[in-house]
Each structure stands twice: as C-alpha cells, then as structure tokens.
Specification:
The protein is an alpha/beta fold. Helix content is 35%, strand content 24%. The longest helix has 16 residues. Helix 2 packs across helix 14, helix 6 packs antiparallel against helix 7 and helix 6 packs across helix 8.
C-alpha cells in the first residue's frame, strides 16, 4: 500500500519505520527542514552533543522507546539517577530560600514543612496511586479535589498547589485526577538519555527508514487534503492510507472541508497552552547537585530550573553548564512576545536568589512552541482525537492521545507502534 504520514516527530518516524519494514510504500511529510518535532536538537559552538530545545529524558520503564532503540540497533542509551529537589521559602527567614531533596521516602520524612499526619496521609496516597490501575474515579474529580480529600488541605497547599498553578495557570483547578495518577504511576528515579542527544537517535531512525526505501520529504508543508475516487489525495499524489501526527489545531486548519464540520468543531473545543523554553549556557552551574528543581515560592516566576549538566557531563557542551527554564503559558502571556534577553532579565534576580550569587550567561537560546500542553479537563476527555476518524483510511496519532500520561517521546513512539498495527 501507499501510505502518507504527516509530521516527522517520533510518532511519524516510528510509524514510517514499522510500516516500511512491512514492505509498504511510505512517504513522510515534515514542514521543518529537520525531523524530530518537539525533540529536535541544537548544537552550540564547541559542543560535541546535541541538546533538545526543551527538557527531555526518559524513564527506566519507558518500554516503547527503549524497545524501538533495541529494535533499530541503537546502543547509546545512558541511565542515571540524578537528584530532584524543590525550592521553598524559609518560614523563619522569608528572604532566604531552601533547596530540599525530594527523592526518597527518607527525604519525605525529613521534610520540614508538613505535619506528621500530613506526611503519613500523603505517603499512603502516593503509594496507593503507584499501585493502582487506572479507574473511573480519577476522571470523576479534579486533581485538587482528589488531593485535598486524600492528603488533606495542608499537603495540597505545601506540596501541590503551586506546581499546578505554575504549570496550568487559570486552568489549574480543572485538571483531572487522572493526570496526577499518571504522573505518579510513571515516575522512576532512574532517568535515561541518548548518547549524543535525542537528535542523534532521530537521525538514526531517519537513516533506518530511508534504508527501507521510505521517502522523507523535509521542508514540505502539506497544503491540500481531499478524498479521491480511490484513496486520499495529498496535494497532487494519492495514497491508500494517511496517518496524521500533526497537532490537533494544525490538522483542523489543514483538513477544513475534508472532515465533517461536526468532527472539526469537536476537536476545536480542546484548549492548549504554549511552551516557552529558555536555555542558559554558563561557565558555572546554578545548581550544585540537583538536576531538577521545582520552584515553589509564589514570588518567583519560574516553574522549574533544570541543570542539565548535573545529569549529562558538561564535557559534551564544551565544558560549559546548561540550565533550562520553561513555562506553559496562554497565547496572550507576555513571555510569548519577549526575546531571550528580555526573558533572562525578567528572571535574572530570581536566578541570583537560587544560586546565591550572580552567574552571567555565556549564551542564551530561546524556543517557543504552540499547542504544547493540552488542558486535561472534562472537555478534553469528551473531545480528544482517536486513531480512527470519520473518513475511512485516514488515521490520527498525535500527542493529545497520550492522555492521561504527560506528553513525551515514549508515548509518541507507542502511538507510532499502535497506529502502524491498524494499517
């Protein structure tokens, strides 16, 4: 069969690999000049490795992407257990901030800002979530409602409220408990990374696809999708099957007039946040030990600070340190209109508080992505896309369908595997 795949991220590449392996004639269309989607990499001056535009790692239980690496003969997977921590404002000295490890049960027991009762309730709830399968209860209430009922008001205020507020903004109170269940169920202490960066693995997949005679059209924006007498026409060529991995809002724009209006209107009901990612290259680290730092104080306009070079060695980046800051924001947020220097100046005083001193950047890298985070509320659950569409032989496999799990490369690969099995 002749199969067209729209989008060259991990879902599209995985589907292209699996289907070309079966002997199908596969053509993959990618608007950008480089494949990889949200995992695409950059290379700074003097760097030996690529670095993702937004924070990327995998978990040790990410079987889909680990399996794809194994199946394609990629052996450069590295697993380590970096430190995770949270930043809190000291109750006794409000002008001081404390970095508190949150990696182990022992860390949790030593946590200074919760009563023993709240610690016990929280520990029992987290253990229960870790062992629990997905159940309808998690879609019947919001995360806030669930956490207040199980862990208590104190634990909600201290541990979770700011994480939800900073990630989802005005939508924080609408996020379903299913999202929280998935976050806890999925987390592992051991994290993985691809030697050379994710872009190295992406290029490896490209080469495997092309070796199997898949056609990859980079820098190609699909303009027109219509039903033909037999098959589906993409611009001037006709295909037996089409798989769209495009973001839902992009697909609804490209496929207007192709799908029934009611189907398009249903997909348009889903709300999204945009991603803003600022990468800071420095000669000194902001964080001495932690790879991942949740920023809890309300007065610090950061969701997190990730010191990538506390995970992967700085030697891969010309001996310099790499830190990520990132946000999910509405389109109207001022960060969307700011350049890298403006954003850095906006957060500079807060970075100084965290590091304990001024650390001047050597280079700044800014990236923005629309439709990066869907709002996992009841509206989303009722309207999210599925593999099959109202048009026969046209399939959707995009990152909205990773629900209830947060978006990530493992679930992108899983979608690619699953949609290829339907063909």
């Amino acid at each position: 069969m002749k199969i067209a795949i729209l989008g060259g991220g991990f879902t599209g590449l995985t589907a292209a690999y699996r289907l070309s392996l079966k002997g199908h004639e596969v053509t993959l269309f990618e608007k950008a000049e480089v494949l990889g989607g949200l995992a695409v990499g950059i290379k700074g001056e003097g760097w030996a490795w690529y670095l993702e535009r937004a924070i990327h790692h995998i978990f040790s239980n990410d079987d889909s992407i680990i399996g794809l690496a194994r199946d394609t003969g990629f052996e450069g997977l590295i697993f380590r257990s970096p430190v995770s921590a949270s930043l809190y404002q000291d109750h006794e000295s409000p002008n001081n901030y404390r970095i508190i490890p949150v990696d182990t049960p022992q860390d949790f027991l030593r946590f200074p800002y919760l009563s023993l009762v709240s610690k016990l309730r929280s520990g029992i709830t987290l253990a229960g979530l870790k062992l629990s399968p997905f159940i309808p209860l998690y879609e019947s209430m919001t995360s806030e409602e669930f956490l207040k009922k199980t862990m208590g008001e104190e634990a909600w205020k201290v541990l979770w409220e700011q994480l939800f507020r900073k990630k989802f903004g005005k939508y924080a109170g609408n996020i379903l408990a299913s999202f929280f269940w998935a976050r806890i169920t999925k987390r592992t202490k051991s994290l993985g990374y691809f030697s050379g960066g994710f872009q190295t693995f992406i290029t490896h997949l490209e080469n495997k696809c092309e070796a199997q005679r898949a056609i990859i059209k980079r820098g190609y924006e699909v303009k027109n999708i219509v039903e033909a007498k037999v098959g589906i026409r993409i611009d001037k060529n006709t295909y037996d099957r089409v798989i769209s991995t495009l973001p839902t809002p992009v697909l609804t724009r490209v496929a207007t007039g192709f799908f029934p209006e009611a189907f398009i209107n249903r997909l348009k009901k889903i709300e999204y946040l945009h991603a803003v990612s600022l990468i800071i290259e420095t000669t000194e680290p902001y964080l001495k030990k932690a790879y991942w730092l949740n920023v809890m104080p309300k007065d610090i306009p950061l969701t997190l600070l990730s010191q990538h070079t506390n995970f992967m060695d700085k030697k891969h980046y010309d001996g310099n340190h790499i830190a990520y800051t990132s946000w999910y924001v509405e389109r109207e947020n001022k960060l969307v209109g700011m350049n890298e220097k403006e954003i850095y100046e906006y957060i500079r005083p807060h970075l100084k508080k965290i590091a304990g001193k001024e650390i001047k950047p050597k280079k700044l890298y800014l990236f923005k992505a629309p439709f990066a985070q869907p709002i996992f509320d009841k509206t989303f659950v009722n309207n999210m896309p599925t593999f099959k569409t109202p048009v026969k032989n046209f399939y959707i496999a995009n990152l909205d369908m990773t629900y209830p799990y947060d978006r990530g490369t493992n679930y992108a690969v899983k979608l690619g595997n699953e949609v290829s099995e339907l063909i």
